[in-house]
Specification:
11 strands, alpha/beta, Rossmann fold, EC 2.4.1.-, 14 helices, Alpha-1_3-FUT_met, Fucosyltransferase, transmembrane, about 450 residues
Length: about 450
């Protein structure tokens, strides 16, 4: 590629131009190679490039240094060893083809599985060599990305007497704050049924039945921040409906952790494995532990009227109340931080992880060549289904068979989920056949469609 060597020479912008948040260049090492000799990592999704200003940076990681860039003009350079993709932006029909045999594909996807169901099927996730996802099985897990630390969980709760006074003013025991409707988890369908049996105050655009107390708070952007007025208001509720927008092991967001920070009890549906991460055995109420919304409503009503039983759900806020050693050890071992300027963020951490892997691979390939085959070539690492592997969406209440033929959720999300499988298979086939023309993607999709039609 033209100009690649010259591009490498001026790779490091002046340090004074960086703010602290974007100045992390790795922990440092003794790598004396010049920029011209370093492996190149290309952030294919340039908007995630964790350095500014400029398009290129040298990073010094434990096992060696790399150049990282968002400039796609080096995509086919012989030293470009890895492409880093952002899962939300990854489109099978836009993937860089042909795939070069000397390049690793790395996936960063901390967001909802609903953003790209291609990654929840084996053909899609196995396109990648290394992953950073919310799943603990990922190569670089981001599971606790929404939890800053134990101090966040131990923040004091609103006194029960104040919550009871709030109830006497006519507010319900349960808060629902959601403006992202019609999602794969179909949460609104469940909450709508629950509302038949207990008062749920819903302030967002979904199932809206009550107004926030000020015009400022009615700005839905406020509800996505740590705004103090908003947090003070919602902290008075005893229970928060905490339903993720998609169901998948280890997919846990601020919908879970924020109520716990505030001292409300999350009424949760999301990660089936959520209990593994809870501070103690009685921290949240799992929707799926109850046979019906009516049974859940009875239990919430019982806790609402029995303060002593309710407060058992907040005992993790007491000194020594966080009993889960797995949670404590996971936070302790985490090498990246959340709003912690003393640690790298997870973008910087992941690029150093990939840099180390590529430097190791380069050395092993050199040893293989020098030995004339006596030392085996390094085997490629391939991502596994369990690095994402999210299940098919199911209705929030009832079964698929109960839904009408024109149900919008059914038409949108079931079709999206299964069409994503076809897209992963199409791109896999294109790579195996060394295709170079992205436009042929839809021909491959048509072939798969005809094959499935014949099978059925």
């Amino acid at each position: 590629p033209c100009g690649a060597e010259g591009w490498a020479q001026d790779a490091v912008p002046p340090g004074a131009a960086f703010v602290a948040a974007a100045s992390y260049r790795g922990p440092g090492n003794n790598d004396t190679r010049s920029n011209k000799a370093l492996p190149i990592l290309l952030w294919w999704s340039g908007s995630l490039f964790p350095h500014f200003p400029g398009d290129t940076e040298r990073i010094d990681c434990p096992r060696g240094s790399c150049l990282v860039t968002r400039s796609r003009r080096v995509a086919r350079h012989r030293r470009t060893k890895a492409l880093i993709f952002y899962g939300t932006d990854f489109r099978a029909y836009e993937a860089p083809l042909p795939r070069l045999p000397h390049q690793t594909w790395a996936l960063f996807h901390e967001e909802s599985p609903m953003n790209n169901y291609v990654l929840s099927h084996s053909p899609g996730i196995r396109l990648f060599n290394y992953t950073a996802t919310f799943r603990r099985e990922s190569d670089y897990p981001l599971t606790l990305q929404w939890l800053p630390g134990t101090a966040y969980l131990r923040a004091p709760a609103v006194p029960l007497a104040e919550k009871d006074a709030w109830r006497r003013k006519g507010y319900g025991p349960v808060l629902y704050m959601q403006s992202h409707c019609d999602v794969p988890s179909d949460r609104d369908r469940y909450v709508r049924e629950l509302m038949k049996y207990i008062q749920v105050d819903s302030y967002g655009k979904c199932l809206h039945n009550r107004e926030l107390p000020s015009e400022r708070l009615r700005d839905t952007s406020t509800a996505t921040t740590e705004d103090s007025e908003f947090m003070t208001f919602i902290a008075r509720y005893k229970f928060h409906m905490a339903l993720e927008n998609a169901i998948c092991d280890d997919y846990m967001t601020e919908k879970l952790w924020r109520p716990m920070h505030l001292g409300a009890v999350p009424v949760y549906r999301g990660s089936p494995a959520v209990r593994d991460w809870m501070p103690n055995n009685l921290s949240i109420i799992l929707i799926d532990d109850f046979d019906s919304p009516q049974e859940l409503a009875k239990y919430l009503d019982f806790l609402d009227k029995n303060g002593e039983e309710y407060l058992k759900y907040l005992e993790y806020k007491n000194t020594g109340g966080i009993k889960n050693q797995f949670l404590l050890e996971s936070l302790e071992k985490r090498e990246w931080g959340v709003n912690d300027m003393t640690l790298p963020n997870y973008l910087n951490g992941f690029e150093c992880f990939i840099c180390d892997k590529e430097n190791t691979r380069v050395r092993e390939e050199q040893e293989h060549r020098k030995s004339r085959g006596k030392i085996p070539a390094p085997r490629p690492h391939i991502a596994q289904f369990k690095h994402m592997g999210c299940p098919m969406p199911t209705p929030g209440f009832g079964s698929v068979e109960d839904l009408s033929g024109g149900d919008s959720w059914k038409e949108m999300w079931l079709q999206d989920y299964w069409q994503s499988l076809d897209q992963g298979e199409a791109l896999t086939a294109m790579i195996h056949r060394n295709e170079s023309h992205q436009g042929r993607f839809w021909d491959y999709m048509h072939e798969i469609f005809l094959k499935r039609t014949k099978q059925h």
